[in-house]
């Protein structure tokens, strides 16, 4: 039995014993056993309401014994609770506590991307439960960031199990900014393999920096592979060759902050329609069709006359 429950049982048994004794010693002043137990708890906890007071010599001796014995037990019980609470909070901040929840999102890596993602989730009040796995942090105050921190290497089964990987809904694996690109990709792929090995159903989003490793990340079990370098390179290119620089970084990020990507299965009646015809349909629903996924390949902005095929998945952008 845990210490806290043993102490609680000891306190209860002690107060019950003194309550029964004082009831039989002074039945007039303590007409029921409950009155005696009430007096024992009030006296032993040093609250001292004074509504029940022993008057006889024997009763006062019982009260002295209660103060000496029961008071120490209650004080020790309260001190143990306080110390246990402080210890638990310290262990949470150190990342040594196993997460017990389910349907949560696991972030691998503490960096600017995960920090920004946390802020976005917080701003939209999604109420998602977040678990962070990181091996570089020694301490992360949970009161400040409102997440469950697990310290360790996400390639190890023990660490993933501490994050309750078997009950997770999503896993977001970010690249380690402290490593070279190839090493960071190898680490991300290894983490993907370990994650998929511990949960065959969880949706894995893996960040890859080099083009050569995209296929390996997919083979490792990633459902979605994000090449952040491609995105940033495209922004740099447009900024360099724009006649009137207007900070496309800021504009694009502001636009995307109020939009959300969705994957939609192609409707039966739209099979054979052109991309333009399908795009017009979603514009009427205040959504923008930006691409399709065909046979596992993402095609952004295909030709307008491209006819949609069975099993195509549409990528649309809509307001949050």
- Poorly predicted residue ranges: none
Backbone CA Rg: 31 Å
Q: Return the CATH architecture of the largest domain.
A: 3-Layer(aba) Sandwich
Overall, the morphology is: elongated
Largest sheet: 6 strands, parallel
Q: Specify the helix fraction band.
A: 40-55%
Identify the CATH class of the largest domain: Alpha Beta
The percentage of residues in β strands lies in: 15-25%
Q: In total, how many domains does the architecture comprise?
A: 3
Content-based structural category:
alpha/beta
**Mean pLDDT across residues:** 83
Spatial gap, N to C terminus: 49 Å
Question: CATH H-level name of the largest domain... which superfamily?
Answer: NAD(P)-binding Rossmann-like Domain
Order of helical and strand elements: HHHEHEHEHEHEHEHHEHEEE
Count, helices: 11
Q: Compute the number of strand runs.
A: 10
Structure overview:
With 320 residues, this protein is of the alpha/beta class. The chain has three domains: 92 residues, Helix Hairpins (Orthogonal Bundle); 127 residues, NAD(P)-binding Rossmann-like Domain (Rossmann fold, 3-Layer(aba) Sandwich); 62 residues, Regulator of K+ conductance, C-terminal domain (Alpha-Beta Plaits, 2-Layer Sandwich). The strands form two sheets. Strands 3-2-1-4-5-6 form a six-stranded parallel β-sheet. A four-stranded antiparallel β-sheet has the order 7-10-8-9. Helix 1 crosses helix 2. It is elongated, with a radius of gyration of 31 Å. 24% of the residues are buried. The mean pLDDT is 83. It comes from Aquibacillus halophilus. One of its GO terms (cellular component) is plasma membrane.
